[in-house]
């Protein structure tokens, strides 16, 4: 959620201000992240939601300085408990990654080395930031596995990644991210490939960890059904921009931006069995060059409520309790 400037309150665990990340494309510059701002307090889970190509994952990589050339961050700030980190040198960023802000990827095998035992890898992660003995590092790894609900954690330290189930590997990845009790964890679709029962267990564990440890989570997903039961607040992204934000309960119960309305309407559980799900007009988020054409609402070519005024910059309409939508014709008003 957005902080109140100048209040003197404790700064958010993680804050992003006006972040812009660009990539060269065939037709010109692609604004993958276009002025994104949000903040997450300690112990809070913020869901960053949108379809493929909306800029969610690039936002996560940009926060950690992991955008590879030719992509580049062109504007904005990333603050960790009030301290800017996106202007740091490569070596300074490496000291922060894992220790103060960590990332959990969709595929845990991106994190885990298939030829090394779990304990060896986790102990190496501990010793990369802390000068402790090998035995102390293994003990901390065992403790982290227990925290995420892995049974017989000492035995699991001796396992190789291929000897664990997908859900168990993802728990190991989360445990690795927690080794240094970071201020914030960025989770990029970490449960997408798991079956529903395992997914539910991990979501419950993450909610418990956020409450118990005070770690802030940025939970990146395309699945509203997941974040509706997990997140405290939501930011909905379309074409690199946050088009709606607010408390998760408010955004799910009364979505205001037509894109969010479509996302909520696409969840099968909200409809009678056998009923046709509502569909948007065919199309993809625009990814062309920047310019005057981008000044208006980028959703207007697919929006059922669009009018000529939507070619102009949309205002941020407020609906109370921090719930806002970037739209000329939000749901619940006359188009």
Q: Topology, pairings included?
A:
Layout lengths: L13 E12 L2 E13 L4 E5 L6 H8 L8 E9 L2 E2 L5 H7 L4 E4 L13 H10 L6 H14 L5 H4 L9 H13 L5 E5 L7 H18 L2 E6 L2 H5 L4 E6 L2 E7 H6 L4 H8 L50 E3 L5 E3 L9
Helix pairs in contact: 3-4, 4-6
Mean pLDDT: 89
Stretches where pLDDT falls below 50 for ≥5 residues? 3-7, 288-293
**Looking at CATH, which topology of the largest domain would you report?**
Rossmann fold
Span of the ends, CA to CA: 28 Å
Tell me roughly what share of residues is in helical segments.
25-40%
Beta strand count: 12
Q: What's the CATH class of the largest domain, please?
A: Alpha Beta
Taking all Cα atoms into account, the compactness measure Rg is 21 Å
- What composes the largest sheet? 8 strands, mixed
CATH architecture field of the largest domain? 3-Layer(aba) Sandwich
Number of helices: 10
**Strand order of the main beta sheet, please?**
6-7-8-3-9-10-12-11
The computed structural class is alpha/beta
CATH superfamily of the largest domain: P-loop containing nucleotide triphosphate hydrolases
Shape: globular
What count of structural domains?
A: 2
Family: Belongs to the ABC transporter superfamily.
Protein name: Methionine ABC transporter ATP-binding protein
InterPro entries: AAA+_ATPase, ABC_Ni/Peptide_Import, ABC_transporter-like_ATP-bd, ABC_transporter-like_CS, Oligopep_ABC_C, P-loop_NTPase
GO cellular component, one term: plasma membrane
């Amino acid at each position: 959620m957005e902080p109140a400037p100048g209040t003197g309150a404790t700064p958010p665990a993680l804050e992003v201000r006006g972040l812009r990340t660009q990539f060269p494309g065939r037709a010109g510059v692609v604004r993958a992240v276009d002025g994104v701002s949000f903040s997450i307090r300690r112990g809070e889970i913020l869901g960053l939601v949108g379809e493929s190509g909306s800029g969610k994952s690039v936002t996560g990589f940009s926060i950690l300085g992991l955008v590879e050339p030719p992509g580049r961050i062109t504007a904005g700030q990333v603050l960790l408990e009030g301290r800017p980190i996106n202007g740091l040198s490569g070596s300074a960023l490496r000291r922060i990654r894992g220790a103060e802000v960590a990332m959990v990827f969709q595929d845990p095998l991106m994190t885990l080395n298939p030829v090394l035992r779990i304990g060896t890898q986790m102990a190496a992660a501990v010793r990369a930031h802390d000068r402790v003995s090998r035995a102390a590092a293994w003990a901390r790894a065992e403790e982290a596995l227990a925290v995420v609900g892995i049974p017989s954690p000492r035995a699991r330290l001796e396992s190789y990644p291929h000897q664990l189930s997908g859900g168990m590997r993802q728990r190991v990845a989360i445990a690795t991210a927690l080794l240094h009790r970071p201020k914030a964890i960025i989770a990029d679709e970490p449960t997408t490939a798991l079956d529903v029962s395992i997914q539910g267990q991990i979501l419950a564990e993450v909610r418990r960890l956020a409450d118990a440890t005070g770690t802030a989570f940025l939970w990146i997903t395309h699945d509203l059904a997941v974040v509706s039961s997990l997140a405290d607040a939501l930011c909905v992204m379309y074409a690199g921009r946050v088009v709606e934000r607010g408390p998760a309960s408010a955004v799910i119960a009364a979505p205001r931006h037509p894109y969010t309305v479509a996302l909520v309407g696409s969840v099968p559980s909200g409809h009678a069995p056998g009923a046709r799900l509502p569909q948007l007009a065919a199309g993809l988020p625009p990814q062309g060059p920047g310019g005057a054409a981008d000044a208006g609402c980028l959703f207007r070519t697919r929006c059922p409520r669009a009018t000529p005024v939507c070619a102009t910059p949309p205002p941020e309409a407020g609906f109370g309790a921090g719930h806002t939508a970037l739209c000329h014709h939000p749901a619940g008003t006359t188009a």
